[in-house]
Amino acid sequence: MTPHQRPAATRPKPATRSAPASSRRPIPIVALDFPRADLALAMVERLGDACNFYKVGGELFTAAGPQVVQTLRALGKDVFLDLKLHDIPNTVKGAARSAASIGAKLLTVHTTGGRDMIEAAVEGAGPTCGVLGVTILTSLDAAMLRSAWGRKSLEVYGEVLRLAGECAAVGAHGVVCSGLEAQKIGAKYGDKLKLLVPGIRPAGARTDDQKRTVTAAEAAKAGANYIVLGRMITEAKDPASELRSVMKTI
Ligand code: C5P
Asked: Which entry of 15, 156, 158, 190 is 20 to 30 Å from 178 by CA?
């Protein structure tokens, strides 16, 4: 059993025809957090048809560059380029244009870069690449956020909602948020913003550096349009069957 698998007693029961299913299932995106393209592509091969959407983040993109994105596209896979851009608007606009030109379907920026920066990203990304604003990293809890932002009192929900409002105001595709806040954002901005939820863990499993985690089923129930699955899939003995069984819980 890998650290991200549940102990047998708490593993979800195999899905049956009568298992509850939400009306709208989130699209699973597997995070290819690897230091080399060959390792990432070997994971894609192991996952086969079980996964058609991959996240390329800072680790892989810095090591392997645009070529790995283009290779994934050539394999018929969609790519979420999770670069979490945070710079002056002109620079972010150019980076978003480049992301769209190499075939990324989703791209992240930090919402704390400001409304003009998010708007510049949306302009640069154009119609083929959706911009997602990272609200508050799922690795931060309220105490860490207060310390990082130098504020004595601060409430995560309030900040996440405020930042989501910035994205909605400039026509971003959506936001990245934890499953704990997804429902509130959906209630307020569901007609304008798609919700992407990382920090997915099986109930009772190791959370690593993540703080605000939920299960895949909880994320779906909260209205996630996309869920990002990282180590719980890539460190599993059989990533494809683990992903299939996670999706059966939704
Ligand atoms: O392995 P794990 O499931 O923790 O991976 C989560 C992935 O989602 C990582 O690649 C991380 O960079 C990304 N992510 C996140 N929290 C955010 C945005 C992205 O964990 N707010």
From this structure: 15
Residue nearest to atom 6 of ligand 1 (CA): 230
Q: 203 Cβ partners below 8 Å, 6+ apart?
A: 6, 10, 215
Which CATH number is 93's domain given? 3.20.20.70
pLDDT in tens, the chain (250 residues): 444 544 433 333 333 333 333 457 999 999 999 999 999 999 999 999 999 999 999 999 999 999 999 999 999 999 999 999 999 999 999 999 999 999 999 999 999 999 999 999 999 999 999 999 999 988 888 999 999 999 988 888 899 999 999 999 999 999 999 999 999 999 999 999 999 999 999 988 888 888 888 999 999 999 999 999 999 999 999 999 999 999 999 9
In this structure, is residue 5 part of a structural domain?
A: no
Angle between helices 37-47 and 66-74 in degrees, nearest 10: 20
Residue 108 Cα, ligand 1 centroid: separation in angstroms?
A: 12
Residue at 17 is within a domain: no
Q: Say how many Å lie between the CA of residue 230 and the centre of ligand 1.
A: 7
Q: Catalytic site residue 84?
A: yes
Token digits of residue 129: 């690449």
- The Cα–Cα gap between 178 and 195 comes to 9
